[in-house]
């Protein structure tokens, strides 16, 4: 059931012209309230921001490492191939086409048995004899996680005699990738809890110090958001500053991973640093504002 008073209020507000100068004054006032609240916190600001820098640095380091590990896994996965050995009467071209139709298959290369035999005879001193080698197909898969699936599908083809691939290496790559991704998610969850708890306690102290002032504003009919917003901005400020100062240690992590990529000749994934920096600022600011909002909701009935 609609509230008649609320409906009338909406209609009246629609016909009231907006005073943009007044809106700017309000925004300025809210900003100054946030600045004053930060000043009231005093040296506590340094402790809060330093703690957030440590938390965001740990998250940024794990997130950046996870992106590099994914890149390494992809590069190693592109090197790993499934070797498919065909029967004597098999049509290599037809089998190649059948395998290319499978999901997750990127490329299929045919190695005729005559070429394999010629290469082997160049490397080893072999007597004249009939070529015992089969036609071979080298199959590349889009991701190491899909090697087992593609392997099982190819094995069902009647023209296939035998198959092989570096199964142990593929499993180790996938395990390593899963471990790093899992740790990154756990760090994110822990970081979320710690950030919200720290901001929550800080804003609670600010609320206690301004308790009388807030009560007077409420009695005067001041908008709830006018009371809330400066405190939310204060929490967002702490998160933003934490992310900003965390860029310094993160640069060392970036440099170290860059040297590792260079040593193993694996290209650095595109836009990784930008993605990590953006994510850190987004998460820091968002969690800071969320911590403030939850504290306000808990300690203020506004």
Account of the 3D structure:
- This protein has 302 residues and is an alpha+beta fold.
- The chain is built from 10 helices and 4 strands.
- The protein folds into 2 domains: 41-75 and 179-299, no CATH class; 81-165, Alpha-Beta Plaits.
- Strands 2-3-1-4 form a 4-stranded antiparallel β-sheet, sandwiched between helices.
- α3 runs antiparallel to α7 (167-209) and α7 packs parallel to α10 (272-299).
In short:
The chain has two domains: 41-75 and 179-299, no CATH class; 81-165, Alpha-Beta Plaits (2-Layer Sandwich). It is 73% helix and 8% strand.
Q: Tell me the major beta sheet.
A: 4 strands, antiparallel
Portion in helices? over 70%
| Shape estimate | elongated
H/E element string?
HHHEHEHEHEHHHH
Which structural class do the helices and strands define?
alpha+beta
Number of strands: 4
N- to C-terminal distance: 23 Å
Strand order of the largest sheet: 2-3-1-4
Strand content: 5-15%
Mean pLDDT: 79
Radius of gyration, taken over Cα atoms and rounded to an integer in Å: 31 Å
Low-confidence stretches: none
Total tally of structural domains: 2
Helical run tally: 10
């Amino acid at each position: 059931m609609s509230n008649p008073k609320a409906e009338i209020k909406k209609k009246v507000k629609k016909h009231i012209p907006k005073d943009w100068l007044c809106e700017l004054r309000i925004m300025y006032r809210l900003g100054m309230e946030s600045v004053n609240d930060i000043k009231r916190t005093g040296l506590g600001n340094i402790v809060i921001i330093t703690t957030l820098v440590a938390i965001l640095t740990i998250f940024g380091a794990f997130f950046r490492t996870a992106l590099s590990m994914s890149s390494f896994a992809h590069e190693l996965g592109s090197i790993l191939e499934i070797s498919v050995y065909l029967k004597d009467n098999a049509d290599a071209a037809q089998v190649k086409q059948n395998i290319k139709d499978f999901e997750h298959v990127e490329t299929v290369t045919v190695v005729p048995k005559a070429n394999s035999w010629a290469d082997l005879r160049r490397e080893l001193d072999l007597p004249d004899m009939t070529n015992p080698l089969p036609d071979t197909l080298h199959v590349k898969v889009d991701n190491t996680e899909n090697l087992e699936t593609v392997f099982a599908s190819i094995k069902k083809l009647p023209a296939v005699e035998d198959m092989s691939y570096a199964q142990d290496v593929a499993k180790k790559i996938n395990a390593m990738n899963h471990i790093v991704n899992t740790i990154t998610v756990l760090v994110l969850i822990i970081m979320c809890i710690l950030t919200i708890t720290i901001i929550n306690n800080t804003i609670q102290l600010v609320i206690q110090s301004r308790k009388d002032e807030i009560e007077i504003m409420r009695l005067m009919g001041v908008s709830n958001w006018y009371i809330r917003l400066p405190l939310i901005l204060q929490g967002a400020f702490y998160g933003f500053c934490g992310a900003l100062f965390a860029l310094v240690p993160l640069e060392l992590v970036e440099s170290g991973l860059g040297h590792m990529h260079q040593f193993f000749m694996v290209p650095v994934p595109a836009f990784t640093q930008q993605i990590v920096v953006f994510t850190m600022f987004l998460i820091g600011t968002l969690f800071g504002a969320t911590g403030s909002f939850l504290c306000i909701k808990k300690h203020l009935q506004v």
